[in-house]
Amino acid sequence: MLNEEAGSSTLMRRDEALSHLPTRVAHRTSEKNPPPYGAQHRQEALWEGGNEALPPRWQQFEAPDGNTQYQDDTLVLESSKRPLPGVRLDDPGQLVHPRCEWHISPLGRSYFINHNTQTTSWKKPKPEHPAGSLMPECVMEGHSQCIWSLACLKASCNVISASEDGSIRQWKRDGEPVGKPWYGDGRGVNTLAVSLDETMVVCGSEDGRLRLWNIKEGSMIGEPWEGHDAAVRSLDWSPDALEIATPPIKTSHGWVVAVKYSPQGDKFISGGNGTICVWSRDGKLLIKIKGHDDAVMSLCWSKDGAHIFSGSADHTIRKWRAIDGKELVVLRGHTNAVTSLCLTPNERYIVSASHDCSVRIWDLKTNQAVGDPFLHDNEVWTVATSADGTFIASAGIDKRIYIWSLEAALERHQVGVFCALVFPYPFLMVLVV
């Protein structure tokens, strides 16, 4: 009797343990249609039953931080280092933009649920542009792959772009190209920074090298700089142009994926796995700032060096006091990772780009979003403001650079605020234009 009970208990524990494992699916090579809207299927692991291979349309590669990543034709997902067969994915159901989320089909193919239209599709849905939303002044086309980084020149207000297609391009505000594209070795260019005198631009590439370019001539200066074992995805030039800081590097405080020198040049900040570190220029850790719930993806300083702004994969933008790391403001409104930040020249506003396909303007006096977001057709990776404060440039996965009138956006917001008429009691009424 005791043996029967013990055997029964063992089977129950085994069955309970097995119930938490990902379910293998039969080997198939194609799926005609995504699951219908309202289907309850949730597959949280990639399986191709029995053959220890990834499902069709998926590739495996190593990320700079040593984690394994898996990519299909739409998404890049990071695993928790679980070996094949069976790769656990930690966040199916993630929003790609408001009321639209991605899931994984039984065969391991990404599909998308659009709750706005109550439909499912293999293709990632485009965000809906509300009637009357502000449209871009200009859309620049020429890159053939994702645009990772932008910079606006102060003197000319020209825009410089770096792309996965291996090229760097310069554009006038009206979209006219300036000269021919610049090419290194053809590999993707992930990040760029312009020297203070605007004579040179330094770029970091997928091959782990840095290249210095003459802006006027569009020619490379010297040989590429080597030293990184992985792709360079962020860099910054010191204000005196004597140094360039580049992650990814691993410190005792975790992986660094973003760096930014202070305007005074006496210190710099780094961000990575949810932590911001403030360093002296000679590499001494001054302050360690914690508060974000996910990776820090973008950083910037106020001109006086008193405040730090950070954008994170936790969907928030935060303002910190630089001297002691005290959190001062949390800006919420994005529905996905915040990938890029920049302050307007007067520092009244901060502009953010996000994987939720939007660019937003935030008023730093009210700590509120200004007007409606500017919408792209896909994830936005980079944003920059012109030195004269008249326009915003943004770009990302959709291969285009969008030029938005900052003046028009602010004027529209001010009209909405100042045209509110309130009549005294008993004729209470509010009219908003």
TrEMBL record:
Domain WW: 108-127
Segments annotated as WD repeats: 140-172, 182-223, 289-330, 331-372, 376-414
Cited InterPro entries: WD40/YVTN_repeat-like_dom_sf, WD40_PAC1, WD40_repeat_CS, WD40_repeat_dom_sf, WD40_rpt, WW_dom, WW_dom_sf
Membrane-traversing stretches: none
PROSITE patterns referenced in this protein's UniProt entry, alphabetically: WD_REPEATS_1 (PS00678), WD_REPEATS_2 (PS50082), WD_REPEATS_REGION (PS50294), WW_DOMAIN_2 (PS50020)
Positions of region (Disordered): 20-43
Stored Gene3D superfamilies: 2.20.70.10, YVTN repeat-like/Quinoprotein amine dehydrogenase
SUPFAM superfamilies for the chain: WD40 repeat-like, WW domain
Keywords annotated in UniProt: Repeat, WD repeat
Pfam families named in the record: WD40, WW
PANTHER family registered for this protein in UniProt: F-BOX AND WD REPEAT DOMAIN CONTAINING 7, WD40 REPEAT PROTEIN
Protein name, UniProt field: WW domain-containing protein
Organismal lineage: Eukaryota, Fungi, Dikarya, Basidiomycota, Agaricomycotina
